Amino acid sequence: MAGKVTFFDTNLSFPSNRNTQGFQSASPDTSRFVPQSKSHHELDGSAQAQDQISRCYEKLRSLRPSDSATLKTELNLLFDQLISENYSSSNHDNIHPEVVCEMLMQASRLVPLSQEHLFIKLCQVIHQLLNQLQVIVDEHTLDVLVSYCSRALRTCSSWTHPDVLLALSSLVYGNGSKCQRHLPELLGLSGFLVSYGDPVQPDIELRRSAVHCIANLCLSVPGQPYLEEPYKGVCYGILLRTLQSPKPPDVEDIVFCSLLQSALKGMQYFLNGGKWKAIPNQDLGTLLAVLKRFMFYGLPGISVEMPQVLYPAPLPQYETVSAAKPEPSQDSAVQKKNAGSQQNKKRKSRGKGKKAGAEGKRDAEEGEGDEVKSAGGGVDQSAWSLGSQSSSVTSASGVTPQLYPSWKKGSSDSEFSDPEGGMQSKLRLYQARVRQSALQCFLAVVKCVEKRILYGYWSSFVPDAPGIGGPPPLTLLTIALKDPSPKVRAGSLQVLSALLEGSRQFLSTAEDTSAPRQAFTPFSATLAASVRELHRGLLLALVAESSCQTLTQVLKCLAHLVSNVPYNRLRPGLLSPLWKQIRPYIRHRDVNVRVSCLTLFGALVSTQAPLPEIQLLLQQPGSTSALNTPGVRTPQELSHNWRRPGTSSPGGAVEGGPEGPCWLLQLCVSLVTQPREEPYSDSDAGGSSGASLEPSPVRLEALQVLAHLVKGYFSLAQTSLLELGQLSARCLAEQEPSVQLHGAKLLEELGTGIIQQYRADANTPQSAKLVPVCQVVQFWSDVLSGPLISALQNEQHPTLQTSACDTISSILPQAFSQLPDKTQVLCITLLLGLTYSENSLVKSAAVRALGVYILFPCLREDVMFVADTANAILTALDDRSPNVRAKAAWSLGNLTDTLIVNMQSVGLEFQEEFSDMLLLNMLRSATKASGDKDRVKSNAVRALGNLLHFLQPVHLGKPVFEQPLQEAMTALIETVRGDATMKVRWNACYALGNTFRNRSLPLGSAVWSKEAYSALSYVVTSCKNFKVRIKSAAALSVPSTRDSYGDVHQFAEVWQALAQALEHSEDTEDFLEYRYCASLRSQLCRALLHLLSLCQPEDLPALRSSLSDQSRPVLQDLLVRYLGDKDVALVAGVDGLAGEEAVDHAAPEDGLMLLNETLTRLKGPLEETALDRSEDLKTVLSFLEDVVRNFEEIKESDCNDSSLQLSKSP
Q1: I want to staple 1033 with a disulfide (CB 3.0 to 4.6 A). Which of 728, 862, 1083, 1188 is the partner?
Q2: What predicted TM-score, i.e. pTM, was given to this entire model?
Q3: Beta carbons within 10 angstroms of residue 774's beta carbon
Q4: pLDDT of residue 994
């Protein structure tokens, strides 16, 4: 079916979704935005256009094919009427695409190919109607008209072919995948488009039309298959050769620019079709070299001689910047210009050849004046001479001669005499479009090529030195600083932002904290220099830019840079100049600039928080006069307000300044709550809760900055805790859902910050600066008595309910216990009720919140609350949503952790009150969940281990528990042996070890016992992940009695598995696992010593067999090393279980004690009972004595060395 589209506009910023690049599909009845000032005019024009289309359609339907002169006359008149109408100036949504398609098909039936002049008019009608009405033809119309045009290319005269190709390009636009039947004729070995689009084609108009047609064939439509091979490769080859071929000497510059723009647009469509695949005929380096060449095409003052291919290299590659030839159209003309000619300064050339602008119809024409005139005017040129006040934007000599933007130096490009100026301004416009198209194409490359491949070309597009004393490096920053077109500058910044996005891993190697090396420069230093140059260049662009759209892109690019740079590995001082420069833009007249500025502040306070440099900047006193004045002001006007006298330091630190409320916090609060002083600009889009408040985007971004600030620098925000609580309550009370969500998020961050302070393992000592519990209680009392409870009950906004659940789960446990009883009951009741919500997001958030509450000391001993929570969690475990089941499994794991804690602290009282039937249901549900997806299984097996540990003899004596126990053990064993993720298998090994702690279980005699030991023995010797091996070895060392290990064969299997694992503990194919080698050896030695302490006479033969072969010296050496290692680094547990894992291990000193006890036992009564096994006993005793003796010798040698060193010291 035919449909309407909104065509891609080259003048606008790049769309965020590259999959819909080129057009956005819309149905015929889709309402379009109509500005109020033009709506009536456009509706009248639309009605007239519809009437004319209808009349012409009816007239064409009444005609019949014939050779009469009357028919030719009538067709000529009809076509002239259709061509003369300008449909693009009115709203045409009421013109049905089906009518247009049927009318064109009828016209093709009436016009024979022999009547070439009439046929050319029809081609022009096809192009104009489809283009201006923005219609994509249906498949039947496409087939008929493409066949019609193909026949014309075969039979008609060559002078008609450019117009035929123009009509063909309009037909195939967005229909490339539907042209399969015609592709051999168009793109085959001797296809029309292949021959006409070849660079050797002498007719430039024919070549340009063919390239434009190929570009439209490459356009992909969302939801439809892309152009298939080999035709896809044919298109790429033609487009690339077109871009690589030089301009023919007899071709006008403007015509050649139009050809280049079509080729670049086609390459962009090609790249948008899918991920880049490296094949022989598609070399990335060749394409990037071409794009880099055209990124500087026609840029005043720069002539580029680029290599044919760019190669992945850590250093900049060879490129020549030739001296620009004198252009009388620019500087010389300006010098000859007298004062009387200034009245012609703004005149523009509107003239345009029909062929030169035909293809551009698909890409709506941009305003010429916007491209050719200077983009300056808003920032005084003196902003470039900041001197010592801004070291980041000046060179060592105090000037920046190379990166001074050329568009800020001289007067407008349009200062010419009338005919000369018109052509030059038009040429500048077309050259700017080429540069913009090249940047759009480069952005498509960034989107479709893997970043790890693209970063090999980093040095070709990002500078690492300012280039003082020589030509500036030709990089994206050069365009951002020197291009006269604000849209091209914005395009280069968007490409740079896309490169920086997700570059954290690549930039993490940058480092310049150490002293510089003289012999060579490591890549880390080169990358650090590149980062510093990015900061310097973007600050230059920030100071000089006056176009609001481009200024927004500068700030966004800086935000991407700040988010990915490892500032902790770089010398401090990069962020202080940036912080100073962006502060005035918070009150910029344009709302998008203000939002981008706040986004940058959010990136600054969230990156690697807390950074000492940012913490000092946050503590600096704010400049109220600068921040309360609407409109941007120059850095010079603000420099005297930035730092008060006597408070600045080279690194941006504050010396001797009094600590007060954080100025950024106060600013964001005022942006959210205070009315704005005056309207800023027409771009203040988006409503707000009050007519006089800041626009919603500004308020939302301010709330996000507050959330980042609280998360990263809570110590600075805690003084305003109650004020921020009131702000969040105010946001929750508003009607706009987005403001409510951000208010709830801020509350959650505040609660999380308080909890982090009270954790015993906090990274920084905060004991003296903790928020008092009484203040926390007051904070949550105020919050819970406000609109937060209403948000929890707001079923019309489930996302808000979800966020509110997360918020009340962040209450400090010590404060929750001091809240009024009715408040506690209210929170619990609401959460229990929300677990039965129909919305999966709400249900999962409520289940997770209960999983947090179950760990509260004041609630975990309440049997009724535990039972209610367990029932809610078990219900959620059967939910259809995987996310709900995952959260329920996590909460079940927490609940079973509580059972173990209560078993140890409360004792039998809690166990007797807890329902046996509920315990049985929990066991069955956890067993069932252990067969779910890995994200559910991970916590389900953890819960199984806790439940099996919790079972008491009274439970095990009931027949109803027998089968669930067997099924639970089978589930754990299968998980340990299975192919689940390493985290799941780690938790399964931990669960088995937890199960072995229950002495009531028939460990050693049960059927599942042998399978459990076999599974752990298999994992400890064969698993590739060392953390899983460590946990399996820990589980094998848990049983405290010899009977728990079963018969002699079972004990021997465990011993041999541990011995083999220790012998091969350094064998791994993954280099990352080597960091766990020491921990693995330590745990294996501990397990072997544990088994030795329990062995009986009947076990000695198995021990002797493993100690009498070639593995004996290896085991002996490793045990000696274990006993002498005082810094055994044990691996922390998964899911925060490091504390519980600590009980699995013992210090090496305990191992020596255990070894001595074992020797005493073997030499004592056990020796008397093992007379018939004297050889076995002697071998084991000899091995243990050698271990002890070697350890003592090493210890004595170390003591002697220490004494010798002390005696030699002065």
Answers
A1: 1083
A2: 0.79
A3: 10
A4: 93
